[in-house]
Structures are given as structure tokens and as C-alpha cells.
Specification:
Blueprint (H helix, E strand, L loop, with lengths): L1 H22 L12 E3 L2 E6 L7 E4 L2 E3 L8 E7 L4 E3 L5 E4 L12 E8 L6 E8 L10 E2 L2 E6 L7 E4 L5 E5 L18 H12 L4 H7 L13 H9 L1 H9 L17 E6 L6 E5 L4 E5 L4 E4 L2 E3 L1
Parallel strand pairs: 2-9
Antiparallel strand pairs: 1-4, 3-7, 5-8, 6-7, 8-9, 10-11, 11-12, 12-18, 13-17, 14-15, 15-16
Length: 298
């Protein structure tokens, strides 16, 4: 009996101590850590904004309010495009020249907040606005070499590099392809006709397979389009060089056959080759090897 009373006394003391400890802990309220999380931001704006223009605001949430948040840009592409308010997360344009649809249709950034459990991903999609084009501009995946005289927001660009330095037009000397033209703005239709008749294994197919700038509508230029490229060779080379490209091949005919066109001669079925150095066109068998520089319209 004494042992039982002793056990009851011990249990009572333990319970009293436990209750007392709970009472002393802020009436039983347990502190919760403040967890900060950063939200992603996706916006669409017009290209060519002004420096300082507001792009949007990166938001961060807290499980316990009141802490001061500190925002920063951890990374961005292209570098230097954005600025951020360290206190509010508001993003603004730092370098308007980088907000050019023809060069950077999508800009991205990663935003960090001190103490946050994650980073926020920022995606900025640019709206393409009609703009006047100038020979030598880098836009729409290539270098402008011809501007439509009736509408200076339209024209042709060539790739910044060759797609082949030595390829046949076809494996027969004078293959049959109906309806090709020599004129400006006919290269795309010519290329379609060539591929329909002869497949994609040769010069036209190589041009069509190019995807510079993320575009898939490149083509083998007509001979008149190659003439315009030759006329503007200096501007093309200068722009290509600063955009990780290469000069147009300008070698003597004894060294290089020049560039393939998508234009067939109407008299004998041979194909026009064009020598950039001499600015001359001449017919050649499709079994010759020549270079390819793809073109697209904008």
C-alpha cells in the first residue's frame, strides 16, 4: 500500500512539472520558422522599350510576415538586360538595345531572395513590331542584303555562315526541274520545286535544313538574290563576323566554283553558279561541287 501511494505521489509531481513547463512556454505557442519562397514571372512586352521601363515585379511569400526581403538577379540572358529593385523585386529595362525581337525574341533571368528556399524564373517574351530594315542589319536570323523598295519592313537576309563548302546540286548533270526563276524573291519557290523533284540530299536540301536563329524556312537563293549578296558583300561580311559568322567566299574561278543558286538556265538545263569575287554568273553542270549560303525572307 505504501508503494502504491509513493507511485501516485511521483506521478503527481511529474504531471505538475510538465504543466508548469507548458505554462512557461508562451501559453503553449511554439515558434514557427519564417520560410520565404519566390514566385516565377512570365510577361510579354513590345520590343524596343526605353531604358528604365518597368517589365514586371517578382513576388516572394513568407510563412511569417514582417521580414525585410532582399532581391537580386542571379543570372540573365542576355547579360545586362535588366535591373531589379533590391527591396521590391521590380524589374526594369537596363539596356533597351537588348530588347530586340530579331536578336533576342525571349529574354530570361533567375531572381534570388536572401533566405529563400528557391529562386524565381523570369521569362520575357517580346512582341515583334514592324521596323524599317537597313542593309547590313543583323535580324531574323541573318544579315539583311536586300530591302523591298516598296516596303522597307520587308526584305531578305542571308545566313552568317556557309551551310556547305562543297556539295553537288544533284548527281545528274542537267536534272529536270520545272519552273525555277532567276528573279528576286523567287528562291523559296525554286527551292520547293527542286526538293519536290530531286529530294533533299543536295544543295537545296542543305539550305532548307538550316535553322539559324531558330527559323526553319531558309532556302537556296535565286541567282538575282546572289547578285544582291555580292553587291553588299562588305556589309554582310562585317555583320557576319561580329555575330560568330564567316565571310562570303570570294575566290577566283580557278579555285572555287562560288555559290549555287536555285535558278536553272532555260536554254540548256544547267544550273547557275555565282562567283562572289567577280560578280559573275555562269551555267554549270549540277554535278559540280560549290558552296551554299542559305537565305530567308522577313
Amino acid at each position: 500500500m505504501k508503494i502504491f501511494k509513493t507511485l501516485l505521489t511521483i506521478a503527481f509531481i511529474a504531471t505538475t512539472i510538465f504543466l508548469a513547463s507548458c505554462d512557461s512556454d508562451d501559453d503553449g505557442v511554439i515558434a514557427v520558422a519564417n520560410e520565404i519562397s519566390v514566385q516565377d514571372l512570365t510577361v510579354t512586352i513590345d520590343e524596343n522599350p526605353t531604358n528604365g521601363a518597368v517589365v514586371g515585379t517578382v513576388l516572394a511569400t513568407q510563412t511569417v510576415g514582417g521580414a525585410d526581403l532582399v532581391f537580386s538577379i542571379a543570372s540573365e540572358l542576355p547579360v545586362g538586360a535588366l535591373s531589379i529593385d533590391v527591396n521590391t523585386g521590380e524589374l526594369t529595362v537596363a539596356d533597351a538595345a537588348l530588347f530586340d525581337f530579331e536578336t533576342n525574341p525571349i529574354l530570361t533571368a533567375t531572381v534570388s531572395v536572401v533566405g529563400a528556399v528557391n529562386s524565381g524564373m523570369v521569362t520575357i517574351n517580346l512582341n515583334d513590331l514592324n521596323e524599317s530594315a537597313t542593309i547590313g542589319d543583323y535580324r531574323d536570323g541573318g544579315v539583311v542584303f536586300w530591302v523591298d523598295p516598296t516596303d522597307d519592313t520587308k526584305g531578305l537576309v542571308c545566313a552568317v555562315e556557309d551551310q556547305s563548302a562543297s556539295i553537288k546540286w544533284h548527281n545528274t548533270q542537267q536534272p529536270s526541274v520545272a519552273g525555277t526563276s532567276e528573279n528576286i524573291e523567287t528562291g523559296s519557290a525554286n527551292t520547293d520545286a527542286i526538293i519536290t523533284s530531286l529530294g533533299t540530299s543536295y544543295a537545296a536540301g542543305v539550305a532548307r535544313a538550316y535553322n539559324g536563329g531558330g527559323f526553319s524556312d531558309w532556302f537556296l537563293p535565286s541567282v538575282d538574290e546572289l547578285i544582291e549578296m555580292s553587291n553588299n558583300r562588305a556589309a554582310i561580311n562585317a555583320t557576319a563576323t561580329v555575330n560568330s559568322g564567316t565571310d562570303l567566299i570570294a575566290l577566283a574561278a580557278s579555285v572555287s566554283n562560288g555559290y549555287w543558286s536555285s535558278s536553272k538556265q532555260t536554254t540548256n538545263g544547267s544550273v547557275y553558279l555565282f562567283n562572289i569575287l567577280t560578280g559573275s554568273k555562269n551555267g554549270g553542270f549540277a554535278t559540280n561541287n560549290a558552296s551554299v549560303r542559305a537565305v530567308r525572307s522577313f
